[in-house]
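Sharing a chain and its predicted structure for anyone who wants a worked example. Both blocks are below, sequence first, tokens second.
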Amino acid sequence: SVTEATISRTRRRVLSRRLQSTFGDQVDVVRQATWQVAGGGEPRLQVLLAAADVLMVSDPDAAERFARRAAEIDHGSAAMVALAHIHAERGDVAAAQATLVSVADRISGDQERFEALLEELSECLWLTRDAAAARATVQRMRAQLPSAFEADVTSTEALALLFTGHPSEALRRADEVLSAAPERSPRVRALTA
């Protein structure tokens, strides 16, 4: 912007830090993330990821910058999964798949594994439209995740079945999940199917 071009980098950092300390959480996450990155310190991971999510469709370049900055400070997989999703939204199959491959080294728990596999499934269903790969991803979910994720996996499978042309089987899977009175996320996925 014009302002950025007319003031020094040091001055910009000072102003960003003052804005953060004065207004902090009173402004939207995009502005918070912008100030945190410009301030030169270590930005908050969740703010960067939220800003990337907000900008994914309207400003994918900015979303990618925030996700890449988040990946620099995130020792887990959340930032890389977000970056893969941004590439997928842009339709960049190669970049999305390459980013997901790099996620494997960062996964530190079952929840992160589920989220990475969920992003992979999303790419199979929407980006490459590969039903066989989607089924294989669901099978990997079943093989790699503990039984505590059964409702998550089954509700995800219901959605995959629905979007690959198997509505009757999708309804059966959704009924399985709903009859077990699951937590909110699997319930929402099952109701969607």
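Comments welcome. The chain has a mean pLDDT of 86.
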